[in-house]
Amino acid sequence: MAIEKTDVVVVGMGAVGGIMAAELGKAGLKVVGLERGPRLKTADFQLDELRYFQRQDLRPDVKRQPVTWRTSRNAPAVRISPQNNGNQAGGGTVHYGAVSWRLHEDDFRARTQTIERYSVAAIPQECSLADWPLSYAELEPFYEKAEYEIGVSGRAGNLQGTKIDGGNVFEAPRQRDYPLPPLQLDQSAVLFEGGTKKLGYHPFSTPRAIISQAYKGRPACTYCTFCQAYGCYIGAKSSILVTKLPEADATGNFTLKTGAMCYRINSSGKRVTGVSYYGPDGSDNTIEAEIVILGTFIYDNTRLLLLSKTDRFPNGLANSSGQLGKHIMTHIMANVLVGFDDRHVNVFMGPSAQKHTIDDFNADNFDHGRVDFIRGSQISIGTGNLEGGPISVSTMAPPPGVPRWGAAYRDFLATYYTRHAAMVAQTENLPYPDHTIDLDPDVRDQWGLPAPRMTYDWRRPNELALVEFMMKKMEEIGRAMGATKVWRAPLSQGAPGAHHEGGTRMGNDPNTSVVNKYGQSWDISNLFIVGSSTFPSMSGFNPTLTIEALAYMTADAIVNKYKKSPGALL
Amino acid sequence: MSEHDESRRAFIVGAVGAGAVAGTALVQTAYAKTQKTKPQPSATSEASAANRAADTFDGHGVFFNDEDVATVAAFAERLMPGAPGKPGARDANVSNYIDLALAGAYAEQQDFYRRGLAQLDAYCRKAHNQPFVKLSAAQQDDVIGALEQGNASEFTFPTAQAFFNTLRTHTMEGLFADPVYGGNRDFAGWKLVGFPGTQLYYTPADLASRQAFTRAPIAGLQAQAKASSKGA
After folding, report:
1. ipTM score here?
2. pTM metric for this prediction
């Protein structure tokens, strides 16, 4: 067993890990990063739909790194396909669609907003909706830092309070415009722009961490379409792999260990002392560190704490609150497809995933007085699986009356592959305490560790009503776009959707949350947990830019406060 | 990662960095040189599936035996049948894709196929007194429909629906995956739906067009690598 010492060990080298490594390394801290997967290069990536979309080459292997799911405590758990997490340095940002949102002001105070505008009775009784322990204004400088350092393309819709047409007029006020202009519109975006404007909505180009012009030594996007599910073949997608990891390398203070599977956080009383991990050769290793940062996907942020229980923390490390593993949220990607007889749409062009968006029905951007749900959804246009190749399209449900095989199906694909697009409503689902992650007693991963097990069923009254409302809106938009065919894709039978959040929720009260706003454990001050696992509510937006902003904020707090005076930041 | 890909990448980065699409002509010229022009496979009538199987039978594979490959090819052809101007599973050599996949990436599904094909054979003999490949197209469709609905007897593991779903998924992969994987022969699947393949870029004019994309020929991974090594 090898033992080494460092100032900081970071588990997981994705959106959080890359930022931590670069920012802490610049401040002179010695950082070791553990990544269970490899470190790939831009030159490794191919324009290959089978390998990356269908076989999910950049995601965890479902057999070696299983995750299980059951609808309730009494239902059997089954293995599920990999979700948004990655399996390489850069994490999910290597393969993601790069959609990059700032949350709305009211997303940070969804509970208070709902009570103030409607009533406490509007919040479902069994729901654990909570305000965030920080405001948009506090996070805003770090959103800006993320947008500029990483490289996001878009148009401001609210610049210092001035609303700007063509941007998202519902966005929270920003101090600076995006560093890069919006990406070009493809034909699905053009049609969506026209249809939604006809209905009086406010469409805009979806902000994406894909550079529309050369930026920081990287070339501009070529609109090749091999984007969501792929690594970008020229590095135009602003993944952590091509942005923060090179920065971390340049500090001279960063060591990346690939093929390194962390299996336990070591602790002594109310301090963590480091971590243990299995190396690529199966070796058992230990790193001693002054600070431990967990920056993995929500599965492992929770699982590692459960695996690291001690006599002092018998229900999971840093879990005196009993909140560990609870309040899991995921987006339900409700789809409406549209087909056109008078034109081609050519959805295989342009960067995925979501391309053009309306925010009119997201958050509390509209009056919920006449609907029987709270919160909402962005509605965007793109392709059915956020990827526009023909294998992807062959997995989508054809319109009613068209079979799934045979001459009629062949003719449907031959006609509509180039003449269709898909809308997606990415719904804000509420947190519930019985949506959980724990350790599966029956399934183990390649290292012999119990698999993370989700207990989750999105089909709650608020969510069902919200999804139905959005389906109708999308059908209305489809008709306004001039589509000759408008049809719904079937919904999942309760299964978790995209963008998982929760499990180590942040809050102001150590009794009801696992970490403070800096991701610092209330129980163990030298343990930081950062990522979407800390989100108290999820918003209708993709989480990555917020994860990155939180990582910058935590790094700033460690460098400017904690380093000078180690201990509780709050 | 081959040097071809490195040079392809360096080339496209340079071309795009230099301002828009200066490299278009170069890529196209180099690409055209590498293309072998093959005649479009002729598709026959959908009604004579059994006869067609005999005409185009591809023989023993690396995993499948002769009978297996004939059955899989016939099954896939009914899922995505060829017709004049509409390449089908047989044109794309889908059975070859599945055969190679089962010898490699999908090796753990060998038993699934072995048992599934045996069950399919037992069911066809029971319901129609003939193996699958000897049935008429209409009978083959009845069999596939029964599998899809889970109404075919003789299936335990895999279940009829699981076998149908897997064959459907693998047929689509064989039609639409890059030809380097052994299917999508002569880009048959991509031609069917109008997918131009691995285009390295689309221009503003491409994005603005309401027409079918025809600016550049269909490209696959191998042709692309060759093209960029010559172009660079």
Report:
1. 0.95
2. 0.92
